[in-house]
Every structure is written in structure tokens, then in C-alpha cells.
């Protein structure tokens, strides 16, 4: 594989940016993002909150229930208890069930839902990121690598397909491609250079450097956000991203 065609750009690591991806600066959550949370499959949300569902019903956690009075309406994506009258959608359910752990506010419930389902909320982006960039920066590229592709989102998507009621989650589907990562970074920051996501058999620094270096063959590119970002399972997350510049 030849990437460089005799180019000899020196590349230097400048600084790591991964830490800034989760700043505490809070901005208003996007309506679209909240809709994504409302569209998460209600039964999946309930199960993650610890409810045991059988045939769209479970014991109601909001009153002393012995007869599975809480039922789920999968198509409307809602729940309702026929005894105590508790009802609502995904966010209401999370708010009510997280109350006891002190995380029952709307914002906390949204955060919990987002974290559990890999939905990226605008409020997680740093204040330096511009969610609606007015100018496009064609001198910056985004080139990322991993091994596991979008496996977590893929599994969640498959899990959202129910045998008896075929309603896969559109909110999970949008994340079933690894290049959503490069796309989101580019979109939110107005980066208009190359965006690529490569799947590797294993982490290979030499190959990654070669590919990142080759990005500079396009003379408009002055810097590349590049590196390894892999999430093979719910408990494993590796991220090492740097900004590379021509020296
Ligand atoms: Zn009830």
C-alpha cells in the first residue's frame, strides 16, 4: 500500500482533545435529541430500569402491585398502570424511576437515557464547539480508526426488533455506522475536509500514521483530528485522539 507518493510531511502531535468531548457546560438540549429519547423503545428502557416485562406487562413500581398492572403500548411507546394511573413515555418512566436515586429531574433522566442508549446530547459538547457553524473549515480533516465498528449500537438496534411486534428503533438505527462519529464531529464543528473512518483488524499505529499522513496530500488540509476510538463492549472504551499538523 502506498499512500504518500513521495510526500514528506512531518506530522507532529499537538494535543489531545478527547477530554473536551464531555464538558460540563450545559446548553439547551436539541428538540430533535429529546425526540430521539422519546422514540427509544419503551420496553427496552423499562428493562434497563429494572422492570421485568412479560407479554408487554409488568408489576407496577409506582404502587404495591401483585398482578402486573402496568402495561406497555409498544406502538404508542407509552406505559400505563390500570390501578394507580401512572402513565407516560420513556422520559417520564426514567424520571419516575430515577427519583429515588436523586436523578429524577427532566435533565437527569434525559442524560441517563442518552448514556444508556448512545444518544449524543448537544449539552455534552464543549462550549468551544459550535453546534451550528456558520463558516466551513475545509482545512481540517477527521480520520478515525477502530476495530469494533459500531457494534454497541448494532446490538441495541437488533435488540429493538421484537419478534411479536416489529418496530426497530430509528433512534438506534442512526448510530449503526462507525462513520457517524466522524460525521458528527465534522458537522458540529463545520469541518469540511476529508472525513474517514477505517476499520482495522487490530490497532496498528504505523498504518494509522500512514493513513493520517496521506490526508495531507490534499494541500487544503492543514490539520487532522485523528486516532483510535473503539468501544467493543459496554464496559470497554478506548479513545486516543490527537490533532496532527504539518510542521
Ligand atoms: Zn400502579
Report on this model:
The strands form 2 sheets. The protein has a 5-stranded mixed beta sheet, sandwiched between helices. The longest helix is centred in the middle third of the chain and has 12 residues, at 106-117. Strand 8 (223-233) and strand 9 form a beta hairpin. It has 247 residues and is an alpha+beta fold. It has helices at 31-39, 42-48, 90-98, 106-117, 151-159, 170-173, 180-189, 205-214, and strands at 11-16, 57-58, 70-73, 78-81, 87-88, 140-146, 195-199, 223-233, 236-246. The protein folds into 2 domains: 9-19 and 127-245, Thiolase/Chalcone synthase (Peroxisomal Thiolase, Chain A, domain 1); 31-117, Zinc finger, CHC2-typedomain (DNA Primase, Chain A), CATH 3.90.580. Zinc ion is lined by residues 60, 62-63, 65, 69-70, 81, 83-84, 86.
Output the radius of gyration. Answer: 22 Å
Quote the distance from N terminus to C terminus.
24 Å
- The domain tally reads 2
Strand order of the largest sheet: 1-9-8-6-7
Count every beta strand, where a strand is a DSSP E run of 2 or more residues: 9
Q: Which spans have pLDDT < 50 for at least 5 consecutive residues?
A: 1-27, 125-131
Here the CATH topology of the largest domain equals Peroxisomal Thiolase, Chain A, domain 1
Task: Report the bound ligands by name, code or SMILES.
Answer: zinc ion
Mean pLDDT: 82
Amino acid at each position: 500500500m502506498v499512500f504518500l507518493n513521495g510526500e514528506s510531511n512531518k506530522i507532529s502531535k499537538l494535543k489531545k482533545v478527547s477530554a473536551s468531548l464531555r464538558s460540563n457546560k450545559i446548553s439547551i438540549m436539541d428538540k430533535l435529541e429529546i425526540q430521539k429519547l422519546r422514540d427509544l423503545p419503551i420496553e427496552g428502557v423499562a428493562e434497563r430500569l429494572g422492570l421485568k416485562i412479560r407479554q408487554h406487562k409488568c408489576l407496577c413500581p409506582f404502587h404495591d402491585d401483585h398482578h402486573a398492572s402496568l402495561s406497555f403500548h409498544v406502538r404508542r411507546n407509552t406505559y400505563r398502570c390500570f390501578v394507580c394511573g401512572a402513565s407516560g413515555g420513556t422520559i417520564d418512566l426514567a424520571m419516575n424511576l430515577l427519583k429515588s436515586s436523586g436523578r429524577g429531574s427532566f435533565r437527569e433522566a434525559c442524560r441517563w437515557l442518552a448514556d444508556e442508549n448512545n444518544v449524543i446530547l448537544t449539552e455534552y459538547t464543549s462550549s468551544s464547539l459550535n453546534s451550528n457553524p456558520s463558516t466551513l473549515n475545509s482545512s481540517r480533516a477527521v480520520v478515525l480508526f477502530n476495530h469494533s465498528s459500531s457494534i454497541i449500537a448494532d446490538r441495541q438496534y437488533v435488540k429493538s426488533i421484537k419478534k411479536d411486534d416489529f418496530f426497530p428503533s430509528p433512534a438506534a438505527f442512526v448510530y449503526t455506522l462507525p462513520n457517524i462519529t466522524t460525521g458528527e464531529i465534522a458537522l458540529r464543528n463545520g469541518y469540511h475536509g476529508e472525513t474517514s473512518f477505517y476499520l482495522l483488524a487490530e490497532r496498528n499505529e504505523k498504518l494509522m500514521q500512514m493513513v493520517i499522513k496521506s490526508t495531507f496530500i490534499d494541500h487544503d488540509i492543514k490539520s487532522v483530528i485523528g486516532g483510535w476510538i473503539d468501544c467493543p463492549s459496554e464496559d470497554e472504551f478506548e479513545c486516543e485522539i490527537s490533532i496532527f499538523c504539518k510542521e
